[in-house]
Design brief:
Layout (H helix, E strand, L loop, with lengths): L2 E3 L2 E7 L3 H18 L4 E5 L2 E6 L10 H12 L9
Antiparallel strand pairs: 1-2, 2-4, 3-4
Length: 83
Amino acid sequence: MWKEENNTLYRSFTFVDFSEAFAFMVRVALLAEQHNHHPTWNNTWNKVGIWLSTHDAGNTITEKDRKLARDIDNLLPPSSSAQ
């Protein structure tokens, strides 16, 4: 679930291992390129944290962020181990 926090949309994802987390990051990177909207994120072993905000709008949350968040969620299959 995405949370509004410090003028960003934030969500953390937990995977089974580093390989699954990194594969997810690759999919998100390709999606971000399609959107021409790039996240701030981090990765530690099986965890990925993503923060979305629109820099052109003064680092606030816009529909651009909400759309990318929805599309990121759609990368996860319903039976995914990611939380």
